Structure formats: structure tokens, C-alpha cells
Amino acid sequence: MAALAGLCALRRLCSGALFLAQLYLLSGRAGSLMTTKHSQPQSTFAKTVTSTSTNAPYFKAAESTEVPSYVTKCPSNGLCTRLPPDCMTCNTNYSCVYGRPATFDCRVKPHVHCVDQNNHEQENFTINMTCQFCWQLATTDYVCTNSTNCMTVSCPRQRYNATCTVRDHIHCLGNRVFPKMLYCNWTGGYKWSTALALSITLGGFGADRFYLGQWREGLGKLFSFGGLGIWTLIDVLLIGVGYVGPADGSLYI
């Protein structure tokens, strides 16, 4: 009986030791898992910081090396006073009198190189020009768009809205592109001399009206023999003074 009681006590002691060993192992594994979870954000943060610091130079703004479009209009190493207006910036002379010569202080724009009379490169210079706005220039100093939709032969003579641009070698005040109302002045290629010659020679058959594109009037003159000559004489006078023109409303050349 004593031997059986000792065997039972030994079995209980072994069971308790095994339980304590399993509890110790479980506690150690849980600790390692907690350590791993807490250390993971630090590792990710470290990677993020490293990645950001490594890629930082790629976000550096690159310096612009583009050449402005106006440089193509500016002759290199030419006289500064003869540069086109697009190549310089000038200060307004508020003391200038309209219609009189005035002096303006100017400076070349970036990427523009010019020289003075002694072939020395300079940036600041003066130019002389007439004190007037661009829209007040003579008609020979600017170029305007043309319209082929208005009638040049009409009473009163028609006008159209044109967009005008000052020529490159002309200096003036204000905007170099401006709107202006102009008289219709386009041509379709009809010659006044040809129309008059046809009216004198073959006007009785309506050749002049056919040439000008006026088919109904031409047929009327053809079948009426020039209105028995009266219509022919009237057309000679009207075409001679320029009152009758091309049917498309253009000017003679």
C-alpha cells in the first residue's frame, strides 16, 4: 500500500512539472509575438523615412532652359536701337507731346544680345520715335486683315471690323495689335479696263454684264439688243465712272 501511494504522488508531481513547463513556453511565445507586433510599425516607419530621404533629390525642381519665342525676331549682335519692339522693354515718357519726336529709355529683354555704335554690348539704351499711339499711325505702318464678305460697291460704302498689327520696324505707344473699322477694299480680280472695253464693243450683247458676273442683266441686254442701244450707252457711262462693279461686291484692279 505504501508503494502504491508513493507512485501516485510521483505521478502528480510529474503532471505539475509538465503543466508549469507548458505555461512557461506559452508565456514566452506570447511575449515574442507582442514584441514583433510592436516592432513592425517602427520598421515600416524606418523604411518610409529611408525611402523619402532617398527619393528627395528627384523632387527637386529643374531649372528652365527654354528660350522665349521672341528671340527668333531679334538679330544677334545687331544695333540695339534697330531691334524690333518685341525685343525690348521701354519706359513710357509721360512728358512727350503728341505728334512730336520724343526719347524713350529702353532695355533689352532676356536672351537678347545687341551692341552700340562702337560695337560694345549694352543692355540699356534710348530710342527716338514720334509720340503717338499705334492706332494713330499712318495706314502704311500697319497691316490689317481683309474681309471678302462686305460689298465695296454700295451706297453708303460698307465698313468691316479689321484686326491690325504694326510692322516690326515701327515704334509706337500702346497695343501693337488693335481693332479698326475699315472700308471694304478687297478685289476679286476683275479689271476695270476690260469691263469698259467690253461695254463699248460688245455691250449690246451683254458681254460687260456677263464678265462682271451679273447674269440676269446680261441676258436682259442680250435679248433686248442692249435695250435698243439705250441700255448699252448707260452701262458705258456707269462702268466708266465705276458705279457698276463686279457682282461679288469687290473692287476693280
From TrEMBL:
InterPro entries reported in the protein's UniProt record: TM2, TM2D1-3-like
Coarse class of the protein's main subcellular location: membrane
Keywords: Glycoprotein, Membrane, Signal, Transmembrane, Transmembrane helix
GO cellular component annotations of the record: membrane
Family under the similarity heading: Belongs to the TM2 family.
N-terminal signal peptide: 1-16
Location of the TM2 domain: 189-236
Keyword Transmembrane in annotation: yes
UniProt membrane topology term: Multi-pass membrane protein
Lineage summary: Eukaryota, Metazoa, Chordata, Craniata, Vertebrata
Protein name as catalogued: TM2 domain-containing protein 3
Compartmental location: Membrane
Transmembrane region(s): 190-210, 222-244
